[in-house]
What does this fold into?
Amino acid sequence: MTKVRIMETAIRDGHQSLLATRMRTEDMIPALEAMDEMGYHSIECWGGATFDTAMRFLKEDPWERLREIKKRLKKTPTQMLLRGQNAVGYRHYADDVLFAFADRSVQNGMDIFRVFDALNDVRNLEVPFRAVKKAGGHVQGALCYTTSPVHTVEAFAEMATQMVEMGADSLCIKDMAGILSPGMAKALVSRIKADHPGMLLQMHCHDTSGYSEMAYLEGTAAGADVIDCAISSLAGGTSQPATETLVAALAEYPERATGLDLKKLGDLAAYFKDVRRKYWKFESGLLGIDAGVLQHQVPGGMISNLVGQLREQGAEAKLNNVLDENAKVREDLGYPPLVTPSSQIVGTQAVLNVLTGKRYGSVTRETKNLAKGMYGKTAQPIAPEILQAILGDEKPIDHRPADDLAPEMEAATAEAGELAKDIDDVLSYVMFPQPAKEFLQWRNEGGGPERELVAAVVGALAIGERRPAAAAAPAAAPAAAGNSGGAWRDFGRLRQLR
It folds into this structure.
C-alpha cells in the first residue's frame, strides 16, 4: 500500500464552510509558498462558491486569483470543484460555455478538476469531462455520497465504473454532509479499488457529524489514496477534519504515513488562525458536532440558510418541522443528494410546505424544474401523484437537459460588450450576469473602494471632526499619508466586515 496523501482545503472549502467564502486573495498569498513546500498532493483553491463570491462581495477577479495562486504553487497541483454542466454557477450552461471555461481555467493555472453532478446523473458529466480533457486538465469524477434505499454500494460502484469508462483520470467519494460512516467508507472504498485497482481514489468528508476522521482511517486502510483535510485553524464543524490530526494519526501506520511535517503545519495553522480573526463577522456559528445531520442529512451551510428564511418570516421556532419536511420532500423528489443546487431547492420547498400548511400548494420554479428533469435524472423516479401536484399537466423530459440549450458564448460576448476585456470576462458574465456586470463596471472605472465603503469612511471622518479636541486620536505620522499600500490594507479590513 502506498502512503496516504493529503489535499489541503483551507483556501477553498475550509473558508467556504466556516467563513461564508469571504477570504480574500491578499490573505492567501503570504501562505502559498510555504504551502507549496509542504508536500501536499494538491491544494484546493478555486471553484465552488469562490467564483461568485469573489466578484459579488470581494470586488475581486476570480481569474486573477487563480493566476496569482498558480504563480506561487510551483510544485503542488492546483485543484478546483466544478459543478458538472453547472460549471461554477447554479444552472446548466450550454456546451460551448463548458469547453471555453475548461480551456481558460487550464490556461490560467488549474490542474485538477473535481467534477460532480448534483443528482449523480452521469449524462451531465459527459461534456465537462470531455471539455477538461481537451483543455489538458486532470478529470476527477466525484460520486456525491448520500443515503437512501436506492443509494447502495452497488449503485455507487456502477456510477464509478461509468465515470472511468467516460475517461475519468481519478475518482472521489464526495461526502458533503459528513454522513459517510466508517463501515460504509470501508465497504465503498474496498469495492471501488477492487473494481479499479489502478485508479487513484480520493475521499472528501466534512466533519459535521464527527464521522469524518473515522471514515478516513477506515477508508485509507481499505486503499483510499488521498484524503481532503483543512489546516486546524480552518477545520472542524462543517469544514474538513484537521490536517495535523490526520497526519499524526496516520504516522502510527508506516504504510500509510503522509510524511508531512507537523511543525511546519503548526506554523501554517498559526498564520490562518490570525487570518480567521479578520473574518469574525462571517463565522457560521455552526461549531462542534451536529449528530442530527445523520438523520436529516442537511449540510451545515444549508441549515443556516433555512434558519435565515424562517427568521425572515418570524417562524424560526419551526426549524425542526422544516427539517422533518425536508426529508419528506427529498424522498418525494427521488432522493437527490443534498448538494448545490439540489440542497437549496429541497430546503426552500420544505420551508414553503411548512409555512403555507399545504404540501406543494406553492411550488418554486426550481422545484418544478427538478421534477421536470431540467437538472437531470433522479436516483429514484418521482411518483406520478407528486409529479401531478408539482407540474400539473406538464410532462417531464427524459434527455440530457443541456441538449435543449443553444450556444451561449457569442451572444454573451455581444451583451458584455466593452465591459469585457477578454474571454475570461465574458465567461464571468455568462456565469453571473449581474454580479459580473457590476464588478466589471467597477473595475473599468478604476477599481476604487465601493460606494458603501466611501460613505462609511466619510461618515467616520465626520464623526471624528465633531469630537472635542482633547478626545481626538493622535495624528498619524506624515509618512502614512503617502502609504497607499497601508491605506488599501485598511480598505481591505473594512470590506471584510461587510
